[in-house]
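Troubleshooting: if your tokenizer reports a length mismatch, compare your output against this known-good record of 416 residues.
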Amino acid sequence: MEQKTEQTTQVDISVLNQAFRAFSETTLKFQEAHAKLEGRVTYLSKELAEKNSVLRRNVVKLERTQKYLNNILESISDGVVALNLEGNITTFNRAAQTITKFSPHEVINKHYSDLFSKWHKGKCDTHTIIYDITFSTGHETVIKNKSGEEVPIIAYSSLITDENSNVVGIVVTFNDLSKIKQLEDEIERAKRLSALGEMIAGVAHEIRNPLGGIEMFTSLLERECASDERKKRISQNIIQGVQSLNKIITEMLTFTQSFSKTEFQKVNLIDCIESSLGFSCHELRKKNINIVKSYNMAQSVLVMGDVDQLRQVFLNLLLNAGQAINCHDGAIQLTCFSHQRDGYGVVKITDNGCGIVPEDIEKIFDPFFTTKAKGTGLGLAVSYRIIEAHGGKIRVESKKGEGTSFIVYLPLVQEV
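Known-good structure output:
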């Protein structure tokens, strides 16, 4: 019995040893598998870290590229507007903001017809822009900015496509033509004035010669009729009429003359304004017009010019301003300053008179155009010619019933 128990015990130990060896072998395999798994995890972690590093670099590079493209978009002078297929605005660059005076938050996700309602005769749909060839080759139109002012533009459209060439939107670029239109108007006016000047010069000389004879013979007739009051008065009226015509002809010839730069010298615009004010103050005082000066007498705004010609311009503008004022609290504001960035000396003469209707503003510098009962319409035309000969510009801003501003720009002296 003891022998049997001993054998059973030996069998149990043997089984236990086998189980232990099996357990040891399995544990060893698990350890080897764990080691391999750790190695694999380490490798994958390293590979993942490398991929994350590459991804981070790509994200940074993408952000830089995105920022660079945005900087390009914001820096170009053309207005750029991107639309989705519903016609809603998705992109609105800085130039578009400048031209339209709308901010991005006012137009993003809004339908473009709210902004460009006059495009293609009011047909405000993206289908029109996609298939209308005039938009891809250039379409001149007029839009209204936020202030309600009309802005002439030329617009171009292009399709936005995805990687499968599917149309996903439209991009419209447009340029502000205001300055170009202004230059075209100035060139057209210069051509018109040049042709008119040649005609005036010929006609004025032909009229002046017989006028001289008429005045001489009428003077003789006046002496002979000295005893006859009625005939003497008629003779004096004829002489006054001849002198008035002669004055108009003199103004006409002044308009046609060529203003030479050979007489130009340094001129302080403030001194020139003060001198013109001295000549006009008597007329202005008669209407009790208040003069408001917005400049420092101690400062100098130096330009190259003919002081007599410039004085003539400012005197003419001051007298015009005075004649436009009919109210008891009339005022004329004089402003003069240097605009160093643009290189101009600026003179602004503003009155609170009757103003000018919009349809007359375009003709205000044309010869013989006048709204005055006794005007010749040559004063502003001559002023325009003088400023033009000085390499400057003259502009007018006016609202009927509110007053008028004439702004003169003259090139500043370039100090060496």
